[in-house]
Amino acid sequence: MDRVLFTKGHGTGNDFVILGDPDGALQLTPALVAALCDRHRGIGADGVLRVVRSAKHPEGAGSAADAEWFMDYWNADGSLAEMCGNGVRVFSRYLIANGLATPGPEGLPVATRAGVVRAAVEADIISVHMGAPEVYAASTATVGPLTFPGIAVNCGNPHLVCGLHDSLPLSSLDLHVPPGFDPALFPSGVNVEFTTPGAPVEGADLHVHMRVYERGSAETLSCGSGALAVGAVALRDAGLAEGVVAVDLPGGRLTVTRRGDSWWLAGPAVLVATGEVDPAALG
């Protein structure tokens, strides 16, 4: 394979290798994705965003009438994912920066495996109108000898939101290994979020601190769809039908807003570098 052009970007530290492949010509494989994301022998990232026209991708063709571009998202281990809230904001930044799309009055539509979402751009912040999260079941997660009660949330991809109790600090959790979970409830794996309440912050109704272990990528500095799941649980637990939740992650702050049936995820999305990589040299 010839040298491949790439862009590196991140949303609150959740970082991605972005591959422009408008016509779907790149032969992307799990092994290549894992090699690109290797932080010692590759470029290093939590995942790969392939930028391909919806009409040119078999999973995006059905959305081609609603969104020109399809976000083909791969986790760092080479597995596919349905949705990535930080990824779709970085993906949108890439489209705009490279003159591939311009947000209209209703935002910039992006097709994903979880459906079409729309991005709105305001200076450094990109907000995405996400699908409504579905809070649907109680479950548990284990970290070493500790068991945490949690709530399952479907954000287009699966999440398990676990609140820490008894003043246990988030920093005490060892997330070097995957948390245990119920495989019967999550047969395709799950992103596990751990949360503690935060002090009041200006402009938000609720404030939450969060760490996350993402399936296929291990612990990451941020997870956009995870923040959406955490925001949904926080609003539900507070008895609020609407509101703004500030979610602080190791990589920065994301904001989840619910107004009526609309859910928005907002935060910075940054492109930091461009270059080319020789796939034959990876490994």
UniProtKB/TrEMBL annotation:
Q: Where in the cell is it found?
A: Cytoplasm
Question: Which positions, given as ranges, span the membrane?
Answer: none
Assembly and partners are described as:
Homodimer.
Give GO cellular component annotations, separated by semicolons: cytosol
Under InterPro entries, the record lists: DAP_epimerase_AS (IPR018510), DAP_epimerase_DapF (IPR001653)
Question: What is the similarity comment for this entry?
Answer: Belongs to the diaminopimelate epimerase family.
The principal localisation class reads cytoplasm
What's the name of the protein?
Diaminopimelate epimerase
Site (Could be important to modulate the pK values of the two catalytic cysteine residues): residue numbering on this chain: 159, 214
Q: In which pathway does it act?
A: Amino-acid biosynthesis; L-lysine biosynthesis via DAP pathway; DL-2,6-diaminopimelate from LL-2,6-diaminopimelate: step 1/1
Q: State whether keyword Amino-acid biosynthesis applies.
A: yes
Catalysed conversion reaction: (2S,6S)-2,6-diaminopimelate = meso-2,6-diaminopimelate
User: What EC number is given for this enzyme?
Assistant: 5.1.1.7
State the protein's purpose: Catalyzes the stereoinversion of LL-2,6-diaminopimelate (L,L-DAP) to meso-diaminopimelate (meso-DAP), a precursor of L-lysine and an essential component of the bacterial peptidoglycan.
GO aspect biological process, one term: lysine biosynthetic process via diaminopimelate
